[in-house]
Specification:
Elements: E1 3-8, H1 12-23, E2 28-34, H2 37-47, E3 51-55, H3 63-73, E4 78-83, H4 91-97, E5 101-104, H5 109-120, H6 128-138, H7 155-165, H8 170-177, H9 181-195, H10 200-209
Parallel strand pairs: 1-2, 1-3, 3-4, 4-5
Length: 221
């Protein structure tokens, strides 16, 4: 079954480029395009895409608010933020709004295709570089209370949660804790369920927004 894509970007040439690239993939189908945020919200509701490629800077309604509205209407929707450079000031806010990751418009085609497939599979895409900037941003925010459900996590789940918050991949977490990637995935699934989170991006945001771990805190052996 094809991955259904909605491309939301105010530049027609950009949309045409994505349609041409994605149209050549047997497992991907562009079902709709949008030239502004309002149109993106409307077409997401009409076409129910698996992944929305969302530009942030758009007229009528920016991609940030469009992301919020799409996810409010459909919690299972996946939004992949499009940005022209990785220091986009809105990347942090987009992740906080519920986006599952981001891609650069000038990334190699194979990187974009991989990102789409990762997000469509229910995973999240958050590079260590972006994680670091998110952490730096959170250090300047007031600290809310610890989230409900935290006390339900086992010691090992907390270990995994700490490493997810540091931006480590499943393979890196497994190496750090001397456990298999399959076990890592199981622990992450339990963490997300107990904390009521959708994906690891939300886990990173929550961990640093609530200052759950010290920046240099190490997991138990």
């Amino acid at each position: 079954m094809s991955i259904r894509i909605l491309v939301a970007d105010d530049q027609s040439m950009v949309r045409a480029g994505f349609r041409m690239l994605l149209g050549g993939e047997p497992d991907i189908e562009v079902v709709a395009e949008a030239s502004n945020g309002l149109e993106a919200v409307d077409k997401a509701a009409r076409f129910h895409p698996d992944v929305v490629l969302m530009d942030i800077r758009m007229p009528e309604l920016d991609g940030l608010e469009a992301t919020r509205r799409i996810l409010a209407a459909d919690a299972d929707a996946r939004v992949l933020v499009l940005t022209t450079f990785d220091l986009d000031e809105y990347v942090y806010e987009a992740l906080r709004a519920g986006a599952s990751g981001f891609v650069l418009k000038d990334d190699p085609p194979e990187q974009l295709l991989a990102a789409i497939r990762i997000v469509a599979a229910g995973e999240a895409l958050l590079s260590p570089a972006i994680t670091k900037r998110v952490i730096e941003r959170f250090t300047r925010l007031p600290r809310p209370e610890a989230p409900r459900g935290l006390e339900e996590l086992t010691e090992r789940e907390l270990d995994v949660f700490r490493l997810v918050a540091r931006g480590l991949s499943n393979a890196e977490i497994g190496k750090e804790l001397f456990i298999s990637e399959t076990t890592v995935k199981t622990h992450i699934t339990h963490v997300l369920r107990k904390l009521g989170l959708r994906d690891r991006v939300q886990a990173v945001v929550l961990a640093h927004e609530a200052a759950l771990f010290e920046p240099d805190e190490r997991p138990a052996g």
